[in-house]
Amino acid sequence: MPKHNKKRNTAFLYETLVREVIKQTIAKDSEKRDKAIAVLKEHFAKGTALHKELELYKALSRTQQMNVHSAEKLIQEVKKDHKKLDTKKIFNEQSAVIGKINKSLSNKVYSNFVPNYKNLATLAQLFGDDATAKSRVLLEEYVLKRLTSSSRILKEEKEKAVSKLVVKTFVNKFNTQYGSKLLEEQKTLLNKYVMSFINNGVEFKFYLNEEITRLKEKLNESVKISEIKEDKQMTEKMKMIIGYLENFNKQPLNKESLQQILKIQTLIQEIFGK
């Protein structure tokens, strides 16, 4: 197999920059986060040479559960489209991205955990011209196997991309800050919050609205519990928190308001024990 240079792998550059945005969000380094986002927006925007190549990587790395005939046809069509790309433009844009990473961020960016790295490296070799006939057959067999396998594999990889980096790092930071372990619902909330910096944030907003509804329901249940009902101060506190949640959408969503939701999640767990 030919040697793989990940800095010349468009999909890897994209994925590692996405992870850098997540990492810097966790580290609360908005300057580096914004620099990484700027590189993504400039060099991977629709119409750029890197975007065109990235779409071909996605076609073979994010598609699954195909029948063998369709999968084989897809591989050949993608390879055909890849040969039409302007390799010089791709090389120049990759060089620009590498330069900005080295100058504005750090060469540690290349060491970010990318869960589907093996698959992206395989695709880069498949698109290249250096592989022997035997290597090309083996590479295509590997890609074919993934294209025809269960969608569960892709889902697990995607989740691992976040949970491996986001949850682990956030757990350490928030455990230190609050002196307790994060609940599963807190991990999910933080997970979707961080990913909202990469995507349009729709999934995070949807989850947050559902979670706020759940918290309000639980708080309304809590005021009926005798220990709280008989404690005027506790009852007032619960009603105040319910009022806060009722008006949550009227205030800007920031780290402070997110922390309030985390605290309310902890409170609910303490009251109901689940």
Summarize the structure.
The chain has helices at 10-26, 30-43, 49-61, 68-83, 87-104, 117-127, 133-147, 151-178, 184-195, 202-222, 226-229, 232-246, 255-272. The protein has 274 residues and is mainly alpha-helical.
Rg calculated over all Cα atoms: 23 Å
Residue-averaged pLDDT: 83
Write down the domain tally: 2
The ordered H/E elements are: HHHHHHHHHHHHH
**Main β-sheet, in a few words?**
none
**Distance separating the two termini:** 52 Å
Low-pLDDT parts are: none
Secondary structure: helix percent: over 70%
β-strand number: 0
**Shape from CA axes?**
elongated
Helix-strand makeup class: mainly alpha
List the total number of helices. 13
Oligomer: single chain
Strand content: under 5%
Features:
274 residues; mainly alpha; 13 helices; single chain
Written description of the protein model:
The protein has 274 residues and is an all-alpha fold. The protein folds into two domains: 144 residues, no CATH class; 112 residues, no CATH class. It is built from 13 helices and no strands. Helix 9 packs antiparallel against helix 10.
Topology:
Layout: H1 10-26, H2 30-43, H3 49-61, H4 68-83, H5 87-104, H6 117-127, H7 133-147, H8 151-178, H9 184-195, H10 202-222, H11 226-229, H12 232-246, H13 255-272
Helix pairs in contact: 1-2, 1-8, 2-5, 3-4, 4-7, 6-7, 8-9, 9-10, 10-12, 10-13
